[in-house]
Design brief:
four-stranded mixed beta sheet, single chain, 450 residues, 15% strand, globular, alpha/beta, seven-stranded mixed beta sheet, 2 domains, Aspartate Aminotransferase, domain 2, Aspartate Aminotransferase, domain 1
């Protein structure tokens, strides 16, 4: 038997293929090896400490090392380490979590279906949209509208609903029944002299024009994040969501809301739907549902969405879908405990209390010579970095992100932005420390630029 060496770096490059990187570049440079986490901090293989300013991947609500989650996982592993929810079977943790989610939902919901990731969940909802249309005899009502810069995952269907070129190029995506309407980011797409209200009206007109051009009888559903996360933390303008919902209601189009990033307190309400006045037909949840300690996602369906699907399964004889790990007992047990902790410790209230300080900190950094502007809501925000002359798009933000990481703060660069999404347990003092590190990184990047 081969004994593995202690060092991770060389073996990582030799054996592991990574997501969301330039693979050839990674073969040469390798990556940062994170060894452990504690609260809002992670530590690399040399022992250097970083503030995890993106909560891992927008997800570690409780921070790293929450003992209650570890204890629940251990207890469930010892009691029932695995069982499935196929063929008229279930188990306690999945039932308990489903009941809790129905009780907490921002609007009345009927059923919960568990999967293991946001991508899987959005992919399944797309399948259920088509299944439902067939159940209703609407054979042509199959098209799905996403938005430019929207992000809903990387499976074939969810990546097609996603509106980011990097998730389409060379994958032969999007599928031809997936459409995309305009991105409601005033800072990026507002026209000279256009007010925010005029911009909102134009976005809504773009959506309605697309529906009419395609034919309302062919459009089944619209997908949207309340705040667009992986597109660069894009906050919708006033009146946008009310207008979208009015249009969808007029043309009998389902609304699927993706709260994979926004859910469980991130925007200062338990669900971002509450903050933005959104009433979805389907709600997709993941990431902070378990603080990503275990892979888990949930789909909540209202009765309008669920009942035709149930009828069709009765006609056919089965709902012919399922994943081995759907409703996994360890994942749902951890998710249940995680949500309990969010509620017990009033972490939604913590976001509300710290939102002003967080947004003010971003606004102060927007005065730096390298920064164009800031934006955010709750504990979700971004700095827009000024493009550098003579460089490719995104190079400035990439350089700033690297300098900020060297200064001890992990963020994520998206386009010309660097994005922030710290754990919900962060304190006011730690927010100040995080932005102090960002300021040092910006200064270092400016000095290197000359």
């Amino acid at each position: 038997m081969t004994v593995m060496p202690n060092s991770t770096e060389g073996r990582d490059i030799a054996y592991q293929m990574h997501p969301n990187v330039n693979l050839r570049k990674y073969e040469k440079s390798g990556g940062l090896v994170i060894e452990r986490g504690e609260g809002i901090y992670v530590f690399d293989s040399s022992g250097k400490r970083y503030i995890e300013g993106l909560a891992g991947l927008w997800s570690v609500a409780l921070g790293f090392g929450e003992k209650r989650l570890a204890e629940v996982a251990k207890a469930q592993m010892e009691k029932l380490p695995y069982y499935h929810t196929f063929a008229y079977k279930t188990h306690g943790p999945s039932v308990d979590l489903a009941e809790m989610l129905i009780q907490l939902a921002p609007v009345p919901m009927s059923k919960v279906h568990f999967t293991s990731s946001g991508s899987e969940a959005n992919d399944l909802v797309a399948k259920m949209v088509w299944y439902r249309s067939n159940a209703l005899g609407q054979k042509d009502k199959k098209k799905i509208i996403g938005r430019i810069k929207g992000y809903h995952g990387v499976t074939i269907a969810s990546a097609s609903i996603t509106g980011l070129p990097r998730n389409h190029e060379s994958f032969d995506l999007p599928l031809d029944r997936m459409l995309h309407t305009s991105c409601p980011s005033f800072v990026h797409f507002g026209e000279d002299g256009e007010s925010e209200a005029d911009f909102t009206a134009r976005m809504l007109k773009d959506l309605e024009d697309l529906i009419l051009r395609e034919g309302p009888e062919t459009v089944a559903a619209f997908w949207g994040e309340p705040v667009m996360g992986a597109g660069g933390v894009l906050v919708p303008p006033a009146g946008y969501w009310a207008g979208v919902q009015a249009i969808l209601k007029q043309y009998d189009i389902l609304l699927v809301v993706d709260e994979v990033i926004c859910g469980f307190g991130r925007t200062g309400t338990l669900f971002a739907c509450e903050r933005f006045g959104i009433a979805p037909d389907a709600l997709v949840l993941s990431k902070q549902i378990s603080s990503s300690y275990m892979p888990l996602s949930a789909i909540l369906l209202n009765d309008k969405f669920y009942q035709p699907i149930a009828d069709e399964s009765d006609r056919i004889g089965s709902f012919g879908h399922g994943y081995t790990a759907s409703g996994h007992p360890v994942a749902t047990a951890v998710g249940l405990e995680n949500v309990k902790i969010i509620l017990e410790r009033d972490l939604v209230g913590n976001v509300q209390r710290l939102e002003g300080q967080f947004l003010d900190g971003l606004a102060k950094l927007a005065g730096h010579p390298l920064v164009a502007s800031s934006r955010g809501v709750g504990l979700l925000g971004a700095l827009e970095i000024k493009p550098w002359a003579g460089t490719a798009s995104g190079d400035a933000a990439t350089a700033v992100q690297a300098a900020v990481q060297d200064a001890g703060v992990i963020t994520r660069n998206i386009g010309e932005s660097i994005c922030f999404c710290p754990p919900l347990i962060i304190t006011g003092e730690q927010i100040d420390d995080m932005f102090a590190g960002v300021g040092k990184g910006l200064d270092a990047a400016a000095a290197a630029r000359g």
